[in-house]
Design a protein that fits this description.
disordered N terminus; alpha+beta
Length: about 180
């Protein structure tokens, strides 16, 4: 992966239980920050859920992946129409850094850096419990960040579920056993 990653670049396992993925996104740091923190914008590429941007604030992320693209593609077995995650803000420095809890023990950090008329978004997901979670989370972040890049670029995205299935197979091949 290069410093100025493109949406086709894959995340990397940077520690045994830590995945890092980067995207160079069109737009200002403030615009990208809004897509990370405002529920109505975030639900278009990831999950809904109002956030109070204060350390310790609790929030809920609500995924409805069937609503992300039209058509959504065929939902794989094992995925419901909706998924919810209770979380809390661990660190926040608007509009540059957001860190939140993931399933109690995990942690996601999102860092933004301005690059001319673009913004470099770096997502680091820490403390993934095992290889199946590493594969699934890597593919999930990749698919959702590709969708964010499409939205910010004004491109029509491919069906979400097809992208996720393809990426899960690719990450399963790439991540060591």
């Amino acid at each position: 992966m290069t410093l100025l990653a493109t949406p086709d670049d894959y995340g990397a396992l940077i520690e045994p239980a830590t995945v890092k993925i980067e995207r160079l996104l069109p737009g200002t740091i403030e615009r990208v920050w809004a897509y990370l923190t405002e529920s109505d914008l975030r639900r278009r590429w990831l999950a809904a859920g109002a956030m109070t941007l204060e350390v310790g604030a609790r929030f809920e992320l609500v995924w409805r992946n069937d609503e992300l693209t039209d058509p959504p593609g065929e939902r794989p077995a094992g995925f419901g129409e909706e998924h919810r995650l209770q979380s809390r803000i661990l660190a926040v420095d608007p509009p540059r850094r957001l860190v939140f809890a993931w399933h109690g023990e995990g942690e996601v950090s999102m860092t933004l850096e301005p690059r001319d008329d673009k913004t470099l978004l770096t997502v680091v997901h820490r403390r993934l419990p095992d290889r199946p979670n590493i594969v699934g989370v890597s593919a999930g972040w990749h698919a959702h960040l590709d969708l964010l890049a499409d939205i910010l670029s004004g491109r029509k995205p491919d069906p979400f579920w097809g992208d996720l299935a393809r990426l899960r197979a690719e990450y399963d091949r790439r991540i060591p056993v």
